[in-house]
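job 3f2a | input accepted
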Amino acid sequence: MGFGLADLSQSIFASLGIPGTTNKLSLSPSRRTCLLLIDGMGSASLAAYGAQFPIFSEVKSAIGLTSHFPSTTVTNLTSLGTGELPGVHGMLGYTVRVPNSGTPGRLLNPLKWDERVDPLFWQKVPTLFERASALGFSITNIAEKRYEGSAFTQAALRGARYVGANRRNEMVEEAAAALAEPNSFSYLYVNGLDHAGHNDGVGSEKWLLALAEVAELIKALVAKLPKNTDFYVTADHGMVNVGEKIVLGIDNDLMKNVTLVGGEPRARHMYVTEGALDETVALWREFLGERATIFSKSEVVSNNLFGEEVSTESVERMGDFIAIANSEVILIDPTRVPQETAMVGHHGGVTDSEVAIPLLKFL
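job 3f2a | predicted structure (363 res):
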């Protein structure tokens, strides 16, 4: 696999001079770095539609990165924040089971959280933001005001000074101010493109309008950021438009031994009754064929889906098996049929459209 967001954050903080980090991407030494992350802007979709917006022709350099598995926001933003792969930080997908939470147990959705779970206990790895701030670096996280203080922010991105900004001009002004001093790093996050992709699909009118807004934000930052700022733009994942829909309902034989459905439509964490794993995996493989790839928990670990190192906590949280949808297939949670059926764009899987993400340097 190629370099991902864990490698990018390690490289950025190494370029700023943070001890104990590794500059795998060979980034030039920097005193001011701005990183804008566009949720859902995959390399394939950018290649297909980016030429419509002149700012993308002004890229100084471009590197191809790979979304960590699963290709979803929770996992990849935590890898960005910590500089570690998912098997280490334990944020393994959109939803996973909370260990020791009863039978069949309850799911944790890190974007909505659960007040019974301490975010600092769930994700214990110190973030690079924390480490840099402790050394006196100016670290800011600029995103919508509603994310300030959220449990996910505490778990994945703690350590930065949070600056709430809901409008483009606010983000630009705040980033410029934060980067006025040397030894500074600003992380900016926007998710309008991801929402448009989920609702209307990649390439839709709404999606193109969202990409136009991204282009305007990049253009404004290029014009406003202080001189000698290294300005990068990246993403957490791409997206595919839905094709075949398979509902994992109670009348589906696949659900015979399933007790809990986690993950998301392109990467399902499946939990089964004790002693029924081999039978269930065989059934899923026979029924789905090439429409999905099935890994038992032991196969997930041996195939390094979450990286070479997998913590005990990660093993306890992940599904007894994981089903990764292929092509444009989605596997629909029977408890979320209306929401998941209505979505046009999906991610989480391992197709090029989902995992190939850009790293663009503008300054």
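job 3f2a | The chain has two domains: 5-84+125-240+350-361, 245-346.
job 3f2a | closed
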